[in-house]
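Researcher: Sequence recovery benchmark, item below. Answer with residues only.
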């Protein structure tokens, strides 16, 4: 992936990826994202620990979970493409 690329990740259980409704639901945004030059990835069957970490981190996307000024300063220090563990 080149720097600055938008990547959208949709997570579905592997058993649902064969459901025609799910296939259709994933197809149209994929076409839309492609028109904008964005990447779409479908993830399934991820490691349980990884998923638990993502759920935990998702809680911090809500405003007010951390002081805004401190978050802005931290984001300025993160290098583009840097791994989350290093950030």
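Model:
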């Amino acid at each position: 992936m080149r720097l600055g690329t938008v990547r959208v990740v949709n997570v579905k259980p592997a058993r649902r990826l064969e459901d025609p409704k799910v296939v259709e639901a994933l197809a149209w945004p994929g076409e839309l994202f492609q028109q904008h030059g964005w990447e779409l990835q479908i993830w399934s069957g991820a490691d349980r620990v990884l998923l638990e970490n993502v759920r935990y981190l998702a809680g911090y996307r809500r405003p007010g979970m951390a002081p805004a000024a401190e978050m802005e300063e931290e984001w300025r220090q993160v290098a583009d493409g840097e791994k989350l563990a290093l950030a």
